[in-house]
Each structure stands twice: as structure tokens, then as C-alpha cells.
Design brief:
It comes from Streptomyces rectiviolaceus. Helices cover 64% and strands 0% of the residues. By secondary structure, it is mainly alpha-helical. Among the domains are: 73 residues; 145 residues, no CATH class; 94 residues, no CATH class.
């Protein structure tokens, strides 16, 4: 007598959500396939696949997370695999969630730090998804401020309520030396700030790969226990602000080594931590950083949208330097898209804003880097992208004259923009000289972006590959090893 296969329970949760979303079975399968392509997956599901899921079959691998993301985008609220009656799986979207509460934000970002500091290399290979920018930036813009962030003896979260509906990243680590629940002092928060300045200086001078892993381990072993410690409302806001800054920096250094999906997750979490800090202006800076990554990856439309959300979020009361920063980043997005008129208008707004800045203005620490040298750098990139090479060269030269030596990577980028502009003007020998200087500087850094800038210049040299100047350039670069 043959055994019957085990009876499956129909998935009523999935059926209800399909009805709410207005999907057909074929339509849901098509959207899952399309989302899979964003992550380099060839899934090939069809309406029969969805029928099997509805009858109780569990899809394997990363598919449950992809299905959940399809419904998240359609319905405009974050849904997990469990919400759909599906088994939890590899956290493809772990870190892209915009947490509903400060406590949940600690859980998500803490899981991200722990996984990144371990030997989980797949997290660094995960793909950047432009669609993953929409929900977090929207939630930040329209979300309500957190009423309370205090913990322990000072706040309502001493008895922790487990978060619902989120796939947790498993904890596999030794307990940190700092006891969970310990009181957080002003000195603790000052230490976080000092560490941020140290890692920022290393990043500017030597590239994100130089100390990125040390920064992530610091976040895991020092910042997370503080966030799970005991603090009142005022200290809590300052603590979340310091954690947001370090998390954004972890994203920035990840971006610099081309771990783009991981960087995107750090940015989303930094955005959420800035909301817990009650620091709207810093949230706009995180969005600016996200916009820069979108520009680098060629997603101009998303870059413009992020810059505009940042502008809406802070309004017209932000200091002139911040306004200039926000408009210049929007200009970069328009430049990538080749939108001359919109790019020019944004550049004009940025220039006018910076002109109104005065020495006595109170400028946030994170915006103090934005000066005439940085503005000229932004303009050089914009004009280069618009193929307006003479103006691009003028701005690039001005930026290099004004830029401090400590910003070695920024100077390298600007030198490549100048080299590309000289090439566009037909000045081959000058272009190759500048390109060789940039290549030498790139060899002294741990920065994938620096290498990619040089490679972009070399691609532009291809039409002239037989010229003596180009052969000389290649010989010089080859000698660098």
C-alpha cells in the first residue's frame, strides 16, 4: 500500500494579500521574476507556481523575501515572509526596513553590524536596488518623530517587547565587554564622536577599505551595547545621533569598496537612527549620501528624487551651506541624465546659497566640508557629464587649487575629471599627464571608486590608443604595478 503525500494547509494569508493587492496569479509570478532580475536571479515562475504556493507549498531560497518585497511595494507597507505565511529565508532585504520604533531600529542595525563584522562575505556581494530607496525616503519624509527613546531606568523600554513581523538576523557572537543595560554617560557619547572623526580622516586620506572593518567591529562591540544600555531622553537623542553618524560612515566606506547593496542598507539604517535622534537636518545629509551613490551607479532619476526629498525634509530654514549642498547634489543627478537646463538651474541655486553664507553662521559639523573647493568640484563633474569640457576644466582647476591635501581621494577624483575634460578639448598630452598622476594616487589607496575613476579615464583614451602620449601613459601606469 503506497503512502499518501502529506496534506498541505492552504495559505490563506497569501490568498488574502493577493486579493488586497489586486494581483492575478500570473501577475504576481511576473513581478517576482522581474524583482529577481534586479538581483541577478533567473527565476521563471508562472501562474502554476503561485497556485502551488496557495495550496501550501513553500518556495525555497530567497524567493519568500522577494515575494514579500513585491507586496511591500504594491501595498506601501513593510511585509515580511511570515506575514505571507511563508518560511523565513536568507535575509535578502535585511537592513532595507525602515523600523517602526527605536527599539526595532536597534535590532535591525545591530544585526547588520554583527553580520558584516563576521565572515559573511555574501552581505558584501548583495546587489544595490534602486527600488529599495523609495519606501525608506518616503517613511522618513512623512513619518512622525519618535516620542520617546529613553531606556532602562530612564524610559519605557526596560521591559522589551519583541518586534513583530521582521525576519531577524541570527546572533552568533560573544557578549561584548560592556554590560548590556549599563548606564550611558556623556563620555561614552563623546567617544563615539571622536571615533567618527578618526575614521573620517582615514577615509578621506586613504580610502574606505583602509579601516572599514575596524569601524564595523567598533559599532558591534561598542555602539550596540550603548544603544541597549540605560539612558534618558536627552542622552538618548545624542546617542542615536552619534550612532547614525557612524552608521552612515560605515555605509560610505562600504560604498567606496563597491559593496553597494551593503552601503545602501547602512544608509537606510542611518536615516532611521537620525529620526530617533530627532535630527532632521542630519537625515537630509544621509539622503544626500544616498543620492551620491545613485549618481555613481548611473541612477540619475533616483538621485534627483532623493535630493529633492532632502530639500523638502529640512525646508528653507537650513543654513545656506546646507542649502548649497542639497542643490549641488541635485545638479549632479540632472547632469547624469543630461538635463542641461535643470542641471544649470540647480547649480545656480547652489552658488547663490553659498554666496549668502557668512563666517559667523552656525553650520552642522557634517556640512563644514562644503566650501568653494567642494562647490567647484561638483560643478566640474556636472559640466563634464554635460560634455561642457572647457567650463568643467576651469572648475576642476579651481577646486584643486583650493582643496586641502588631506582630502586626497577627492583631489584624485577632481584630477581625473580635469584629465577627462582636457581630453575632451583635444589636449592629449596634458590629459595623459593628469591621468598618470591620478593613477599613482589610486595605487596608494584602498578605494575601488578611485580605481574606477582611473579606468573610466582609460576607456575615454581608447580612441587615441595608438598616439605616443597614450602609449607613454600606459608605460607609466604599468611601471606603477
Amino acid at each position: 500500500m503506497t503512502e499518501r503525500p502529506p496534506q498541505r494547509t492552504p495559505n490563506r494569508q497569501l490568498a488574502a494579500l493577493i486579493s488586497e493587492a489586486g494581483f492575478s496569479n500570473a501577475g504576481l509570478a511576473r513581478r517576482v521574476d522581474q524583482l529577481g532580475l534586479e538581483h541577478g536571479l533567473d527565476l521563471r515562475y508562472d501562474k502554476t507556481s503561485v497556485t502551488r504556493w496557495l495550496r501550501g507549498q513553500q518556495p525555497r531560497g530567497t524567493t519568500p523575501a522577494l515575494i514579500a518585497e513585491v507586496f511591500t511595494r504594491r501595498l506601501g507597507r513593510r511585509l515580511s515572509a511570515q506575514d505571507l505565511g511563508l518560511d523565513a529565508c536568507a535575509p535578502v532585504y535585511a537592513g532595507l526596513e525602515f523600523a517602526a520604533s527605536p527599539e526595532e531600529a536597534i535590532d535591525i542595525v545591530g544585526g547588520l553590524w554583527r553580520k558584516d563584522s563576521g565572515s559573511h562575505a555574501e552581505l558584501r556581494k548583495i546587489a544595490f536596488t534602486p527600488a529599495g530607496l523609495v519606501v525608506p525616503s518616503r517613511d522618513w519624509l512623512i513619518g512622525r518623530a519618535d516620542d520617546r527613546v529613553g531606556r532602562g531606568d530612564h524610559g519605557p523600554q526596560a521591559g522589551r517587547v519583541p518586534t513583530q513581523g521582521r525576519p531577524a538576523i541570527p546572533r552568533q557572537r560573544k557578549e561584548p565587554e560592556r554590560g548590556v543595560g549599563a548606564k550611558v554617560t556623556s563620555g561614552d557619547i563623546a567617544a563615539l564622536r571622536s571615533v567618527g572623526e578618526l575614521f573620517r580622516a582615514l577615509d578621506h586620506a586613504y580610502g574606505g577599505g583602509h579601516a572599514r572593518q575596524a569601524l564595523v567591529r567598533y559599532l558591534e562591540h561598542e555602539a550596540e551595547p550603548m544603544l541597549r544600555g540605560s539612558y534618558g531622553e536627552q542622552a538618548g537623542r545624542r546617542l542615536f545621533a552619534a550612532a547614525a553618524d557612524l552608521t552612515r560612515l560605515a555605509g560610505w566606506t562600504s560604498y567606496d569598496i563597491a559593496a553597494h547593496g551593503l552601503a545602501q542598507r547602512y544608509y537606510v539604517q542611518a536615516l532611521r537612527l537620525s529620526q530617533a535622534a530627532g535630527d532632521r537636518a542630519y537625515g537630509s545629509y544621509v539622503l544626500v549620501t544616498m543620492s551620491r551613490q545613485a549618481v555613481y551607479l548611473g541612477h540619475g532619476r533616483e538621485a534627483v528624487q532623493l535630493a529633492r526629498v532632502a530639500q523638502q525634509g529640512v525646508g528653507s530654514s537650513a543654513p545656506p551651506v546646507v542649502q548649497a549642498l542639497l542643490h549641488s547634489v541635485e545638479a549632479r543627478g540632472h547632469g547624469v541624465l543630461g538635463e542641461v537646463r535643470a542641471c544649470t538651474a540647480s547649480m545656480v541655486r547652489a552658488e547663490r546659497a553659498l554666496e549668502t553664507a557668512r563666517p559667523g553662521d552656525e553650520v552642522p559639523y557634517w556640512a563644514r566640508f562644503f566650501d568653494e573647493a567642494q562647490l567647484a568640484d561638483e560643478f566640474a563633474h556636472c559640466h563634464r557629464d554635460l560634455q561642457q569640457y572647457r567650463v568643467a576644466a576651469q572648475h576642476a582647476e579651481r577646486s584643486l587649487q583650493l582643496r586641502a591635501p588631506g582630502y586626497a581621494r577627492s583631489r584624485l577624483f577632481c584630477r581625473v575629471v580635469l584629465a577627462s575634460s582636457r581630453l575632451g578639448l583635444g589636449e592629449l598630452e596634458q590629459a595623459c599627464q593628469l591621468g598618470a598622476e591620478a593613477a599613482q594616487a589610486a595605487g596608494e589607496m584602498r578605494s575601488v571608486r578611485a580605481v574606477e575613476y582611473v579606468r573610466d579615464f582609460e576607456r575615454r583614451l581608447e580612441p587615441y590608443r595608438d598616439a605616443a602620449a597614450v602609449r607613454g601613459y600606459r608605460d607609466r601606469v604599468a611601471a606603477l604595478g
